[in-house]
Amino acid sequence: MFGDNIDDSSQHSDELPKPDETEEQAKKRRERKVTDYWYQEKLRQGPNRRLMAEDHEIYDNNQWQQDNKEWLDSVGQPALTFNEVHPAVEWILGTEKRTRTDWKVLPRKKGQEQEAIIKTSLLKYANDVNKIQFHRSMAFKDQVIGGLGWTEYGVNEDPGEFQVFGSRSSWRDIWHDTLGTDLITMNDW
Question: Using an 8 Å Cβ cutoff, are 179 and 169 in contact?
Fold first, then answer.
């Protein structure tokens, strides 16, 4: 019959305990594996993350290294900075703010106009409650300055809050999978 020869790969999954180990041993094995992945990413991403931090420092007008500043102070010369990066980045950020768009859901078929209006209203409400356009702009700013910006969308567990949330996450808080190839859904991360 069709499908009888399909191998059940769940038997070989890292999520399940191996036949000769307890659940606690399996949990520790999985934790070690995740920790190993994180250390590999720290080694792989470390040089780039240092450059990203330096890019943010340059944007914030901290362009002198400490030892060079001290040397200039010792010879009586002030460490002057003429920051050309900051105004250029501000121009790009201002352009993003001026070109923001609003939600507009269009019907796929005739007769679905009312559903599209309701969906548009719901998306606008979620956007207003979560101030998503501002979070998106902050993530864009991270992306323009350092090359990487993140937004997070999900379901809020707090019953007193709006159920759907959206926010910006700092690139400093996220270690992404550099070996992942699916950059849209991130299913292989």
Answer: no
83-130 pLDDT tens trace: 999 999 999 999 999 999 888 999 999 999 999 999 999 999 989 988
Distance, CA of 53 to chain centre: 15
Rg over alpha carbons for the chain, rounded to the nearest Å, is 25
DSSP 3-state of 164: strand
Residues 148, 172: Cα–Cα separation, whole Å: 10
Cβ neighbours around 46 below 10 Å, total: 10
Determine the residue type at 96. E
Residue 10: pLDDT above 70?
no
Which positions ≥6 away from 149 have C-beta within 8 Å?
Answer: 138, 139, 140, 141, 142, 143, 168, 171
